[in-house]
Amino acid sequence: MMETEEVGEVILKAIEELRAEGMEPDIILAGSEFIEMAREHLANVGLKIYRIEELGYDAVIADSKFLGQIKKASRRISVEPFIEEEHVWEEIENLEV
Predict the structure, then answer these.
(1) Is the pTM of this model over 0.90?
(2) Phi and psi for 74 in degrees, rounded to 5?
(3) Mean pLDDT of all residues in the chain?
(4) Which pairing describes strands 58-62 and 74-78: parallel, antiparallel, or unpaired?
(5) DSSP state of 79
(6) Other beta carbons less than 10 A from residue 68's beta carbon
(7) CB within 8 A of 93, min separation 6: which ones?
(8) Nearest CA among 48, 75, 77 for reference residue 62
(9) pLDDT digits (tens, 9 = 90+) for 4-48
(10) Element containing residue 11 per DSSP (H, E)
(11) What CA–CA distance (Å, rounded) separates 9 from 15?
């Protein structure tokens, strides 16, 4: 199973990067699959969460006051690389040596 701690770290890192650039992240736009994989971490970040089906395994963490106005107001993250890594490890484990 995917390491949820890594997902939490990615979410927190994106929030910290935005704050370091003077932004105040207050929303997460997230796909259904992202929400499912990161559910326990999303409950603890204190940001308003909006489900956007089209985002799938991705999410955008943003400062809603500047979203769409300046590029540095948001960070797009994905849980898809974690899923792909998990599949690779499963294939390696199933190899007959």
Answers:
(1) no
(2) -150, 160
(3) 87
(4) antiparallel
(5) S
(6) 9
(7) none
(8) 75
(9) 688 899 999 999 999 999 999 999 999 999 999 898 899 889 999
(10) helix 4-20
(11) 10
Tokens of 42: 């999303």
Cross-strand bridge partners of residue 60: 29, 76
Token pair of 35 as six digits: 């929400």
Q: Summarize pLDDT for 63-95 with one digit per residue, the tens.
A: 999 988 998 999 999 987 666 666 556 666 777
Domain 4-94: assigned CATH number: 3.30.2320.10
Q: How far apart are alpha carbons 36 and 19 in whole angstroms?
A: 26
Residues listed for the chain: 97
For residue 32, with 0-12 CB atoms within 10 Å meaning exposed, 13-18 middle and 19 or more buried, which class applies? middle
